[in-house]
């Protein structure tokens, strides 16, 4: 882990940020074609007492708006009162992509592959450098909110490098049923933040271009759970009874072009060789059936039934122990109107699902 000297939060690019107050600041990250400064709006909430600084960011990919909805809810929450520490809330991190309703910057680069950035590099690299030095450079912990990419949806899951004890603490505290253990891609914000000593986790949930109520509820609950765990706010943690760690996952891909009839929905527990989707031609004649390669949980899936050969259909996270699926189902059924039950019901409405009997010991399609 690289060592760093954390920057002070008392001042933000020449603006004073008083203790015990909420202050709106702006971070200049680039310029428009007309030379006008491009500034990211940020709210900093400071307690009267010393404590950790936590950043919450959304729309690092400009079309992923569920996190923006969650942060806006926090911004409007008059009951949110810090006992100690500081909170940095950034509802839109990638303004240039957000203005274009796009995942990517105008130079077609993915900002989430450009950290820690460079002051003299490409447009994306320069923006990443400013964000990294001014936000991550002031923070002790971070939560970065994401969704699935276009034409896909994700069952809410936290992604974290569980080799990092503090990132692991954040991941389990956040309170999703599913936790993916991975360090993240090279150049991603969470990976590079962890590398310089700012443990950071990612929430993946829902779809692009939407603010989905159940995903927002999950994000807000998780953020508050983390703040309770860090003793920054009062309250009780609200987590599911069971949480499962996924160390291996696989996208099941179509072997032929066609039109899909789905048999599972996001968040569903699946068994080995359970049918995931039937591929038919446009007149309804069956061409192939995609099967689950192992027992696990549906982390994500396409929402577009028209498919080409090789395109991803269903993302399955493999259970590490044989009883994991039963435990998750039991946990859901034991809770009356739990958030997890409502999440499954909500996300199931994004795809048309019909049942199909398992095909015995037939091999899974590639």
Automatic annotation (TrEMBL):
SUPFAM superfamilies: Zn-dependent exopeptidases. Residues 51-227 form the Succinylglutamate desuccinylase/Aspartoacylase catalytic domain. Its cofactor is Zn(2+). It comes from the Bacteria. Residues 347-366 are annotated as: Disordered. Pfam families: AstE_AspA_cat. GO terms for molecular function: hydrolase activity, acting on carbon-nitrogen (but not peptide) bonds, in linear amides; hydrolase activity, acting on ester bonds; metal ion binding. InterPro entries: AstE_AspA_cat, N-alpha-Ac-DABA-like, N-alpha-Ac-DABA_deacetylase. Keywords: Hydrolase, Metal-binding, Zinc. This is Succinylglutamate desuccinylase / Aspartoacylase family protein. It comes from Novipirellula aureliae. The lineage of its organism: Bacteria, Pseudomonadati, Planctomycetota, Planctomycetia, Pirellulales.
